[in-house]
Amino acid sequence: MSKLDHPTLRQFLAVAEAGTVRAAARQLNMSQPPLTAKIRQLEDRLDTRLFERSVRGMTLTEAGEALAQEARILLGRLERAEARVRALGGRPRPLRIGFVSAALSATLPDLLLGLRQNRTPTPELREMTTPEQLDALIAGQIDVALLHPPVPALPDFQGRRLGRDPFWAALPADHRLARRRSIRFAEIAGEPFVLFPRSQGPVLFETIETLATEAAGKLQVAAEASRVHSHLALIAGGLGVGLITRSTAQRLSFHGVTAIPLKDTQDRLFLELQLLAEPDKLQALSHLFGGTKTSRKR
Fold it and tell me: What is the per-residue pLDDT across 52-67, written as a single tens digit (0 to 9) for each?
């Protein structure tokens, strides 16, 4: 018989994510001593130390990291199994959709319209970064992810590419190039940029860095923001220039920011969207995205 069970795994993950037993106990609505005892018992049963303990809190050991990864997968499968059974029993819960901010301009509205036309219950929506969505999908906290590839191989999920969206320059309204119909990337490469954190999209960040280095010697990052509206606010405030996808530029107007096409980077500087879900959910949504390509994530 397994030495692991559902409540113990949830308690272990709560401590792993909170970093302290006290914070985890508060999240689990239980007192601290029983939770401390549970973690000690788990380590004893596995004959393995799962946490490094210090005055600053608790961090996972290599064995603890391995268990946390497997626990998220197992608990996510249990969560999805419960949802499937409830649906077959006539009590489906709303579809939970995670999405990156770039999906707001076109993909998400199209998806919501299609679901509404199919008389699907109103979905629950959560704006999240790509890494956040991957964690939530594995943990069974969302059913569908609208994110940016590339993504790592994941058990139980399939992906569908939704096309490429080239970037335009986003400039302060009083910028010297703001009245141009189009510009070359080299014309802004040496200026301070407002960008997303590297960890949010390392491949895209590296592409921008390479283009700036080729044209101006190095990339200057003046400020970082995770959401598109935050980007545009910082650009409008004159902190630097930025980048915005064509679809967002065509649908979103932001006071103090002018979006101008980049005429020489469409083959290198673009954003892709990918739909990621379990095969049955992906199949159920596939008719809303005709002409796109499915790939397995295993």
Answer: 988 888 999 999 999 9
